[in-house]
UniProtKB/TrEMBL annotation:
All residue ranges annotated as the DNA replication/recombination mediator RecO N-terminal domain in the record: 7-77
Keywords associated with the record: DNA damage, DNA recombination, DNA repair
Pfam families reported for this sequence: RecO_C, RecO_N
Swiss-Prot/TrEMBL GO biological process terms: DNA recombination; double-strand break repair
Gene Ontology cellular component terms for the protein in this record: bacterial nucleoid
Function: Involved in DNA repair and RecF pathway recombination.
Protein name: DNA repair protein RecO
Keyword Cytoplasm: no
SUPFAM superfamilies: ArfGap/RecO-like zinc finger, Nucleic acid-binding proteins
Tree of life domain: Bacteria
Family of the protein in this entry: Belongs to the RecO family.
Entry-linked InterPro entries: ARFGAP/RecO (IPR037278), DNA_rep/recomb_RecO_N (IPR022572), NA-bd_OB-fold (IPR012340), RecO (IPR003717), RecO_C (IPR042242)
Gene name tied to this protein: recO
Length: 264
């Protein structure tokens, strides 16, 4: 069946050459999930789509076709938002890579779409990148069913003890560190306190999640939450290292020690 979609809210996640004049687009749409589209003739100077089909910009896309790769029919910029500036641009590409690696084709996630749009808007507005990325990682894992409860210990199902520290296990949930774990060792530096986990759990239950979750994620100055979420994302995506993280490291080496590291 030739399925027609009209003016669907969408973002371009990735684009690559298909022919001398055309592109294949990986698109994240609100009601249809991740979709592959062919944009015919878009690389010609006369194409009306040439200046519109950019990553990280909110678009309205129309497409049709009965095959796995649909044909783009129309594209318009929604307006009201510009590209994230400077280092925030690389942070936005990191979000795109997460969606490409973790989302199945044509599996709609409208709530996740809204969180992604909010994350890009915050990056474009100059919000602290680390907090935005950690918040989106938590929301992504929750939306896909891979974030365990953060209000009790996984093995015993007992409430978290206020004085204890807990580590997020990729194949389970929160695991309490033994009292003998020394400060500064590998396990201790990749764990968070019980009050912090409980605060994150409470924030994730809010209807409007970003105002409460973002300030909490900005408190991860030691990088413990980042390391635990990265391990979970690597496990579920099946990749050892995300390409955008490698780019960030290369940029850091090229620019020098004075550059601010992109927190991906």
């Amino acid at each position: 069946m030739n399925k027609r979609v009209h003016e669907e809210p969408s973002f371009v996640l990735h684009r690559h050459d298909w022919s001398e004049a055309s592109l294949i687009l990986e698109v994240f749409s609100r009601h249809h999930g991740r979709v592959a589209l062919v944009a015919k003739g878009v690389k010609r100077p006369t194409s009306q789509f040439r200046s519109v089909l950019l990553a990280l910009l909110p678009l309205h896309l129309s497409w049709g076709g009965a095959t796995e790769v649909r044909t783009l029919k129309a594209a318009q910029w929604q307006g009201g938002q510009l590209l994230p500036p400077g280092e925030a641009l690389l942070a936005g590409y990191y979000l795109n890579e997460l969606l490409l690696k973790l989302l199945a084709r044509e599996d709609p996630h409208p709530t996740l779409y809204d969180h992604y749009a909010q994350a890009l808007a915050l990056l474009a507005a100059g919000a602290p990148q680390a907090g935005v990325l950690r918040a989106f990682e938590l929301l992504l894992l929750r939306e896909l069913g891979w974030l365990p409860p953060l209000d009790h210990e996984a093995a015993s199902l007992q409430p978290l003890r206020a004085e204890a520290r807990y580590q997020l296990q990729t194949q389970g949930g929160l695991c309490e560190l033994p009292p003998t774990a020394a400060d500064g060792d590998a396990a201790s530096t990749a764990a968070c306190s019980a009050p912090y986990w409980l605060a994150l759990h409470a924030a994730l239950q809010q209807v409007s999640v970003w105002p409460s979750l973002l300030p909490l994620c900005q408190q991860d100055r030691s990088g413990a939450l980042r390391r635990q979420l990265r391990a979970a994302l690597h496990y579920h995506s099946g990749v050892r290292e995300f390409q955008t993280r490698r780019w960030a490291q290369q940029v850091q080496r090229f620019v020098g020690s004075r550059a601010v590291a992109v927190p991906v």
